[in-house]
Specification:
Layout (H helix, E strand, L loop, with lengths): L8 H13 L2 H7 L7 H9 L2 H18 L3 H17 L3 H15 L13 H11 L3 H19 L7
Helix pairs in contact: 1-2, 1-4, 2-3, 5-6
């Protein structure tokens, strides 16, 4: 098993197992994590920067060792899709194009960073101190303002 700086033995085992089939849940189980929580554990591990760096570094090392570049893999998959089409194999076509999309990053989750600042915390504190009646007045005032902006008369006017 390869060793990775900054990772525990179990995390390093997860990285090695993840590189086998890119299945985080199964990699977590094979690395010795609890089967019942393997999916959550895999997600937690795959969002860990050190583990992501170890996976990326090993993928680059493997590609270098095998003299394979990303473009070679994509070209092979496009050829496989074309061959599946000629053989009237829609499942093969879908599988090949799905892999192309995966390698192109089309299925990668979008990461959004949300920063909460002190002003937002202060505003939340102020809102938490308001009564229900005060909150309803604020909501009604906001709805009236939106209606007026759209050219609608407020209800009851």
């Amino acid at each position: 098993m390869a060793t990775y700086d900054g990772l525990t033995d179990k995390q390093a085992k997860f990285v090695s197992e993840y590189l086998v089939d890119a299945n985080g849940t199964q990699a977590a189980i094979r690395a010795g994590y609890s089967e019942s929580g393997a999916r959550v554990t895999a997600h937690r591990l795959l969002t860990n920067d050190a583990i992501c760096e170890a996976v990326a570094a090993q993928q680059i090392a493997d590609a270098t060792r095998l003299s394979i570049q990303r473009e070679d893999v994509l070209n092979g998959l496009v050829e496989a899709a074309a061959m599946a089409k000629l053989q009237c194999d829609p499942a093969g076509m879908v599988a090949a194009w799905k892999q192309v999309g995966h390698l192109m990053g089309f299925y990668s989750p979008e990461r959004i960073r949300v920063d909460v600042n002190v002003a937002g915390s202060l505003e939340m504190g102020r809102l938490n101190q308001l009564s229900d009646a005060d909150l309803l007045r604020i909501i009604e005032a906001g709805q009236s303002a939106q209606s007026e902006q759209r050219g609608f008369a407020p209800v009851g006017a």
